[in-house]
Amino acid sequence: MLKDVYSKAEKGMKIVVENFKKELTSIRTGRANPAILERVKVDYYGTSMPVNQLATITVPEARVLLVQPWDASALNLIQKAIQTSDLGVNPTNDGKVIRIVLPELTEERRKEMVKMTNKIAESSRVAIRNIRRDAMDEVKKMEKNKEISEDEMKKGQDEIQKLTDKYIKQIDEIAAKKEAEIMEV
Fold it and tell me: Which strand (E) or helix (H) includes residue 66?
């Protein structure tokens, strides 16, 4: 019975860590990464679609993204969506492809990116702690209903805390790595 509580809690914590990793891909570092365009939505025939579903995105150089739409009529729509996004870039269009040259990040912009990273990391830590709280409540309820002994409850709570520490440590390590990547000139 306690094993069910552990596995449920661990599954939830793993999902939080995966979502955290995915969210961090949209934060721009000094290098070009197609994932930064995942949040950019294009109004295409009345439907809001991400750029990566309308075009091929490649990285020909370290700070250049090349967006090649599958439908040439979407070229201007994609360009407009990128311009109005919060990326702070100015795409150029040669009639076939959109070229996005990512400017060097200023020290100020790097610090903003680090703050964003830390904000996302903190919300992920909170999500993990919420999973811990729910698991702890479940264990206490099991003890209250005499399904497990008090010793088993204490052991269960220790085990849940170990899981929590493990996943929060993972979040901290990933955030530190991303921070170093952002601050790298």
Answer: strand 64-69
13's tokens? 């914590």
- pTM across the whole model: 0.71
List the CATH code of the domain at 34-101.
Answer: 3.30.1360.40
Q: Averaged over 43-67, what is the pLDDT?
A: 87
In sign, the C-alpha dihedral spanning 177, 178, 182, 185 is positive
100: its two tokens: 């996005």
Tokens of 12: 């939830």
Let me know: does 41 contact 48? Beta carbons within 8 Å.
yes
Q: Which residues pair with 49 in a beta bridge?
A: 42
**What are the beta bridge partners of residue 61?**
64
Structural Rg of the chain based on CA atoms: 22
The residues, ordered by sequence, that sit 6+ positions from 137 with a Cβ below 8 Å of its Cβ are: none
Q: Could you say which architecture CATH assigns to the domain 2-25+106-183?
A: Orthogonal Bundle (1.10)
Q: Above 90 in pLDDT, residue 14?
A: yes
